[in-house]
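Let's practice the habit of predicting before peeking. Look at the sequence and jot down your guess about where helices and strands might fall. Then scroll down.
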Amino acid sequence: MSDDARKAKPFAEAVPLNLKARKQQVVRDALSAAAAELFSKRGFEDVTVEEIAQTAGVSRRTFFRYYESKEDVMVERLDRDAERLVSELTARPLDEPPLLAIRNALIPAIEYGLEEPELVRDAMRLMRETSALRRALMEHRNRYEERIAAYMIQRLGTSSEDNTPMLLAFLTRALYDSAFNAWYDHETEDIAGLVDDLISRLCTIVSGMPADFNKR
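Done guessing? Here is the structure:
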């Protein structure tokens, strides 16, 4: 085999792999879109895995190559937004106070999540109606909370023995979920105002604690 052939072989092998990955993404996207359509029309509980697969044009066996359950399909769609939150938070300047960094990360992340408002409405409605879906999402969101806590440890220059990073991670997730719930109930285009209102309410609650509360 010539030197030119040897050099070309790795590239030639990489092309089918990339093509395979693209085909897999097409199937995954088709399953996700089919599930969202069926959930919206008939409700989460009444839709079966078989129906999702049929609507997407694949077999039931193919469905389980990509997802373990129908809950996983919806959770994956919602997790795309949560991933954006982690990215926005880790991009904040290190000299920002933690709560301000959280605020400044939440606004663009929520705006990104609301680029498909109809999908968000359907997802929020399904979340409120379906306990199985809430449990599945909670398991996934716990992982994001752990990632945020690990980032906060680095940001604050502390250790895992300090409860502050864990508290900030929980607060981030609570504000994120509360913002989407508030949007669902009151629909507003002023996302910055919505986030600021939630943080303002939090600050008001905290300021109401007496200075010597831990001595009582």
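How did you do? The chain has two domains: 1-67, 69-216.
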